[in-house]
């Protein structure tokens, strides 16, 4: 019953995302715009772009995820769905996890699919593209889970979207550091297993703690139910 409720919520959010395509297309367009404009602002030199590619792609991905996070709970708060979730017999952390997974399927997974195109635009070697996609696959889900805490804390605020990056950015930094280090190591031909293992550990930690923290914040926003 609990898993069924989470599955239904995930399907509902995915259907809403398809109907309101701008909510998840805007971050993807933003991601591609950043990737396309950086060579103009920094340097079109292939060697320079290759050196910076991992950091540029990951910063663009982080900003794109943050751009999409404000609406994770806000629509439910405005139309009364959040109150129904708080009253649901299903565990609220499980429902939060379902919403985060739906968000990630629309943004983080889409960013991972776009990553090879971004890598080609920034002259990243083919040997490093697989590592880049792996870091994005693991890391963007971690970013979404962490950002869900900020989105839950600010769901009742009128301009809460501005606060989400300020609240969660310090928690995103370790993911950003190890993900870009993995890509850089792949470019240099160095081992990347350690970096990927740490990213996977961050993901496991986020899966265990972030839904609980976001659920507690939502209960506060819903009047302590």
TrEMBL record:
Major localization class: membrane
Subcellular locations according to the entry: Cell inner membrane
GO CC annotations on file: plasma membrane
InterPro entries reported for this sequence: Cyt_c_biogenesis_CcmB (IPR003544), Cyt_c_CcmB_bac (IPR026031)
Residues annotated as transmembrane: 21-40, 52-73, 85-106, 126-155, 162-183, 195-218
Alphabetical keyword list: Cell inner membrane, Cell membrane, Cytochrome c-type biogenesis, Membrane, Transmembrane, Transmembrane helix, Transport
Topology versus the membrane: Multi-pass membrane protein
Record-level Gene Ontology MF annotations: heme transmembrane transporter activity
One of the GO biological process terms: cytochrome c biosynthetic process
Annotated function: Required for the export of heme to the periplasm for the biogenesis of c-type cytochromes.
Record family assignment: Belongs to the CcmB/CycW/HelB family.
The protein's name: Heme exporter protein B
Lineage: Bacteria, Pseudomonadati, Pseudomonadota, Gammaproteobacteria, Moraxellales
